[in-house]
TrEMBL record:
Keywords: Signal. It holds the Pfam family Zn_peptidase. Residues 1-31 form the signal peptide. This is Neutral zinc metallopeptidase.
Amino acid sequence: MAASRWRITRLALVPLLTGVLIAGLTGTTTAAASGNAPLNASAARNLDDINQDIRSAQYVVNRFWATHWSEFFSGWYSPPRVLGGYDGARSNAPRCQGSPLPDDNALYCWPPYDFIAWDVDLMRMGYRQGDAWVYLIIAHEWGHAVQARIPRRLLSRRVELQADCLAGATLFGAAEDGILFFETGDTQEIAAALRQHADDTPWTDVSDHGSASQRLSAFNRGARRGVGGCFT
Ligand SMILES: [Zn+2]
């Protein structure tokens, strides 16, 4: 994926998603190919790349919510604090509500803390398969921050699946706004991330986040129906 201000590169993988998403992908890929996202498939995926993608994802997700908040919710939008990357294997990892931030995971720490953070190893592991991973994680955790800002009656009992839905609404909504460009393989990477890591990482733990297919269908619902589709 590429934000309008950032140059990112992508490789093509195997299509996995449904017709609707692929149709959306085709449209935005065309837009990207027409000048906003120069392709450089051989570029090395180094630390600079991942840090740039992380900054880009924060920019895109925050801007989406700042732009659209009042279409869905009352009150003013305020972004969560971004604590950023931490090393969960260290004994002095930062804390949320008194507990050290979890190893190989990402989280939103609910108010009054109100911050987003991720283990750098979790980001790097997923990033090896593509940059869409960091967009997915940040959009999902930001979705929890949205949940913390809206009336409780709007919260789904499945808060994790609702956060996936909001992630889909955010990323595809940002693409519609022209601030994010899906490149070849991005939607496949997201599908693969939700499937392949299902057993590998706490972030995709079935017991709290839902099965891979539930997560993918929640993400797709947001992608197709937008923010409103996450509150039915
Ligand atoms: Zn979550």
